[in-house]
# Entry
Amino acid sequence: MATIETDTVLKSLNEIGILPLFYHSDPSLVIEVVKACYDAGARNFEFVDRGDHTLTVLKALFERAKDYMPDMAIGVGTVYTPEKARLYINEGAHFIVSPALI
# Structure
């Protein structure tokens, strides 16, 4: 997955003004939703760490995004522990959203 600088993510968030977020356990559905957001102009997307399939879905999403949405910054949200944050960053997440790390 392409590296996207932190400044690029923040600039895009400020310019576009929204951060779409979503969770579903079906990778195909998630890819469709993210692609629709991308086609509409979004360049940042938060996948919510809400279910047992988060890592599986993220891997499929990252694989698809590198070819079809190369400038889409994909992050993971509602991450509560440093261990989970590290896991998602190591898998390719461009950013982490956390209400608090415990």
